[in-house]
Amino acid sequence: METTEQNIYSLKDLDSLVDSLVSKGYRVIAPKIQGSLALFTDVKSGSEISLDQVNPNNSIKEHLFPRSEPVLTFKYESKKVDVCDPPEPAQKTVIIGAKPCDTASLPILDKLFQSDITDKFWFAKRNLTTVISVACDKCDEYCFCSSVGLSPESKKGCDMMLVKKDGGGFVAEVETDKGESLASELTDAFSKAGAADNGASRNVCSVETKFDSGNVKNWLDNNFEDPLWEDFSKQCIGCGACTFLCPTCHCFDIVDEGNIDGGCRLKNWDACQMKMFTMHTSGHNPRSSQDQRWRQRIMHKFRYYVDKFDDILCVGCGRCSRSCPVDMNLSECLSLIDGKSGETKAAGEE
Ligand code: SF4
Ligand code: SF4
Question: Which one of 234, 236, 243, 301 would you pick to mutate in the ligand 1 pocket, going by the greatest count of ligand atoms within 8 A of its CB?
């Protein structure tokens, strides 16, 4: 759906939006300050929402793909096992305040969650969720959306994008039918945009391009073995924070928890940066060193996923680097690879 004058609205403030949503029975998720962190969590009023940070610490992923999610329950009864599906989510949900990088992760993950089999857990929540993003008015040195084909006002994956207006309020640009139906339903919050909205200056920052993702892919295609992997990953302690905070990392483990009466089968987040991720029961570990695990993370995001799904598995949100306890910086590694790609080309030309 193209954005036209017909689907641009004016939103006075977040209070009226959240009040309207709550009164109509929606669950609302938005960034909220909790201690020193800004986290996407349930809110009941617009005053709880904080849009001041570059990006919330967690991503919106965990509200569609929870850290731990039951996939079935089981009960033992007279030597038989009864297996039941967990209850399906039913409440319509609106996520407010996701940055364009986070919303872009959704269609990227849709491809994976319907590739070999359709992941009904992901799509049950996805179908019930409307995503209202906010264009970025500030960025930091960790952001690199523009190096992976996005921008601070990209609409990929959102249903509607808010742009902050000078003097308060937002212009709301509808992107999908879901977004349009929400704007039409919430007449207390949204009104048709007037001339002032259409001509309003856009409070949007710009993000410097740090590397060429095509060069990175070419280099990765040809350099599975390279001293760069060990050199760059020396300080990584394998804590997994980068993978858990990443909006596109999606690996999980399946675990049964229960007792003599029955229990639950859970899908739990897992992380390729942790040593146990690939540990075999024999004790052999095909990725026994941290440089192999770091290489896997880069290869998966910038080579294998591109080959399989024609999308980079990274949206340049910078969370992995911003939160790394030992200052591993992904865009620095990718810039280094881009530079090496240039060296290879130059050497080849001679
Ligand atoms: S957050 Fe940093 S130290 Fe932890 S696994 Fe990721 S790169 Fe390594
Ligand atoms: S790899 Fe890092 S920058 Fe890329 S999407 Fe994940 S957390 Fe964001």
Answer: 236
